[in-house]
Design goal:
The complex is a heterodimer of chains A (267) and B (147).
Chain A lengths: L12 H29 L6 H38 L3 H17 L4 E10 L21 H13 L4 E4 L2 E2 L6 E4 L2 E4 L2 E3 L3 E6 L2 H8 L7 H6 L4 E11 L24 H9 L1
Antiparallel strand pairs in A: 1-7, 1-8, 2-3, 2-7, 4-5, 5-6
Helix pairs in contact in A: 2-3
Chain B lengths: L4 H20 L8 H24 L4 H25 L3 H36 L7 H7 L9
Helix pairs in contact in B: 2-3, 2-4, 3-4
The chains are: A alpha+beta (267), B mainly alpha (147).
Chain lengths: 267, 147
């Protein structure tokens, strides 16, 4: 007694359905595999509607790679300058001055004693919908800029915020809700490292009515200052191209080709 | 159990396919992933339709095979066309195919439940010898009767 009795002659349909089921299983596997891949790696697509998120990710990765390359090239540059400077007394003096200037400009990694200031958003902040947002609960670009400024006043010789060296070209500003330093987004906690006289920097940060007072009034735990015996600050990796600013003609060097300089170095 | 064969081959196909994709690191471009999903759904619909037709004794292999290939291609190309002209035709395919899958599943379920009920009644009334299977097949379930 079977409901299949009418289809007994066509029992082979099970075989055929099984064969098709096998193919269907593979199609389903392909689909499932692709979807899990996307979930794991993010969607990489030519379709802009699908790929805004991954596009920025790719661009950020590229930017990071380029920054690493810039740093490497600048290190190589220093090496070559040192080699060139070995030739004559004049060249070595010039090179010495050049390297000192590069330290001032923030183009080389520097290390030394200093302080580390950690600024964080208020952890106690309550996010109920009825209360108005208290802007004092957040660290703003202006807070960081003020701290950097005060550090300079206190004699800091090199400053970095979240691994971004403060150079003459550095801007600290808000883009939307994110603080950008050297056009690189930074997130709290903001770690400001400064090399200089540890006591002078520490004192400068703790001046009455100083830059950190307002933040400490909201919640003292938003600010932490540590004295450090050794800090290592990275080199500035942003652009140093000048398109408009020109030194006076008297300050311009004579134009020489690279070959000539190399010949000089070999002498 | 012969009737479990399709299920077994579905799972083994899935396993083989997944293993192959993992082993050979095949990649399907993100743009085509939605079309593949719709195609898979169309294939699912065809298979359930085939099972239903087989139970009803109306299974025809040429219709089944051509239906499987053409339905998958049609569903995928319909979804593709929808993306080109800015109408979400993939959604249309999903709704139509999905409802058909549910309908076919409900019919298959009814046949199996009827089979069970029959087997029980046969046990109880062994003395009566009537061609029950014929009577069951005569009273086909109504399609609208609650999916």
């Amino acid at each position: 007694m079977s409901v299949f009795s009418a289809s007994m002659n066509h029992r082979s349909f099970l075989w055929q359905i099984s064969a098709v089921c096998f193919v269907l299983g593979m199609v389903l596997a392909a689909s499932a595999f692709t979807v899990t891949q996307f979930a794991r790696n993010g969607v990489r697509s030519n379709n802009p509607a699908l790929s805004y998120g991954s596009g920025t990710q790719v661009a950020a990765e590229k930017a990071q790679q380029s920054e690493g390359e810039i740093n490497k090239l600048r290190e190589r540059n220093t090496e070559l300058e040192n080699k060139l400077g070995k030739g004559t007394d004049a060249a070595s003096t010039l090179n010495k001055e050049l390297q000192e200037t590069k330290v001032i400009a923030g183009l080389t990694e520097v290390s030394g004693p200093g302080v580390q200031i950690t600024l964080n958003d208020n952890a106690k902040e309550s996010l109920t919908q009825n209360e108005p947002v208290n802007l004092g609960n957040y660290i703003h670009d202006i807070d960081i800029a003020n701290v950097v400024n005060e550090l300079k006043v206190s004699g800091a010789e090199a400053i970095a915020v979240n691994g971004q060296r403060i150079s003459a070209q550095t801007a600290i500003r808000c883009v939307g809700s994110v603080v950008h330093i050297n056009f690189v987004p930074a997130a709290p906690p903001y770690i400001i490292q400064a090399i200089g006289s540890t006591d002078a920097l520490y004192g400068g940060m703790n001046l009455p009515q100083g830059v950190l007072d307002e933040i400490r009034k909201v919640n003292p735990s938003m600010v932490r200052i540590d004295k450090k015996s050794k800090l290592v600050l990275p080199a500035y990796s942003g652009s140093t191209l000048m398109h408009f600013a020109q030194p006076p003609k008297s300050a311009l060097p004579e134009k020489r080709s690279i070959q000539e300089s190399e010949k000089d170095a070999q002498k | 159990m012969k009737s479990w064969m399709p299920v077994i081959s579905l799972f083994s196909g899935f396993a083989v396919g997944f293993a192959a994709f993992t082993a050979f690191k095949w990649q399907i471009p993100a743009d085509y992933a939605p079309y593949l999903s719709v195609a898979a759904l169309a294939g699912l619909d065809t298979v359930f339709g085939g099972v239903k037709a087989g139970i009803e004794g109306r299974f025809q292999n040429d219709i089944f095979a051509s239906g499987f290939i053409l339905n998958t291609l049609l569903a995928a190309s319909l979804a593709w066309l929808g993306d080109r002209i800015g109408v979400n035709l993939a959604l249309v395919a999903v709704i139509v195919l999905g409802s058909r899958v549910f309908l076919n599943l409900s019919l298959i379920r009814r046949y199996y439940l009827n089979k069970h009920a029959l087997a029980k009644s046969v046990q109880q009334e062994e003395s009566i010898q009537t061609p029950l299977s014929a009577s069951v097949l005569a009273q086909k379930p109504e399609t609208g009767g609650g999916i």
